[in-house]
Amino acid sequence: MNGMNEWMPISQVSQKVNIPPETVRRYARQYGSYLAMKRGEKKAYLIHESSLDTIKRIRTLLEQGHQHGQVKLLLRNEYEANVHIEKEEAERDQHLSKQMMKEVHMLVDQNKKLMKLMTEMHERMNVYEEILEQQQQLAVTSEQVDETMKEQRDYERKRDEYLLKTMNEMQEKRKESANPREKNKLFTKLFKLS
Which positions fall inside the HTH merR-type domain (predicted)? Predict the structure, then answer.
């Protein structure tokens, strides 16, 4: 929602929570420290929409027979519990962010190693090409060329297997870090720890 709709006058709050405006005003005076409020034009109360549930809760507690002091105590306890829960969630989010950053750094390192390996392989391939050119210039027998080609194919096959294995491992790591189930497992581990 935009900023204009977040703050409402008492009359609008009254309609939304189905409580008479006079009662909402009384709640604003008595329980204002538990409501997000400010003064608008002509010093009229404006109440933030995030406080609608609190107003309903006040009404329910009073209807259940709680006295003014008891309602304040219950609201304070609920507020403190919510603050504690929000703090725990923030700590869990921070821990998850740290773990995700570790995984990202690990993937970056793997990518660097793979790039280095590919560069080395490219350099070796250049050497093999030079060797092949030299062999052709010297008119090496076909057996020697076949043997060199076999070695090159073996090398290329091993290189391709290694590259494929490395790329599969990287994809698995990426899937794990993007997989909501894995994140849920992480949250489950975090909750079991607390």
Answer: 8-77
Domain membership flag for residue 183: yes
Q: Is residue 73 part of a domain?
A: no
Between CA 49 and CA 57 the distance in angstroms is: 14
Which of 52, 5, 45, 43 lies closest to 25, judged by CA? 45
Query: Are residues 183 and 100 in contact, defined by beta-carbon separation less than 8 angstroms?
Result: no
d(CA 160, CA 154): 10
| Distances from the Cα of 63 to the Cα of 23, 60, 77, 168, angstroms | 13, 5, 19, 63
* Ranges 90-99, 109-118, 156-165: which has the least confidence: 90-99
Q: Tell me the whole-structure pTM to 2 decimals.
A: 0.42
pLDDT (0 to 100) of residue 77: 85
The answer on 128 and 44 residing in a single domain is no
Asked if 108 and 172 sit in the same domain, the reply is yes
Q: Write out the residue range of the structural domain in which residue 49 sits.
A: 3-65
Alpha helices per DSSP H over 18-137: 21-30, 52-63, 68-137
- Give the span between the Cα atoms of 101 and 127, in whole angstroms: 39
Quote the pLDDT of residue 140.
53
Whether residues 28 and 94 share a domain: the answer is no
Residue count of the chain? 194
Domain co-membership, 100 together with 39: no
Same domain? For 58 and 110 the reply is no
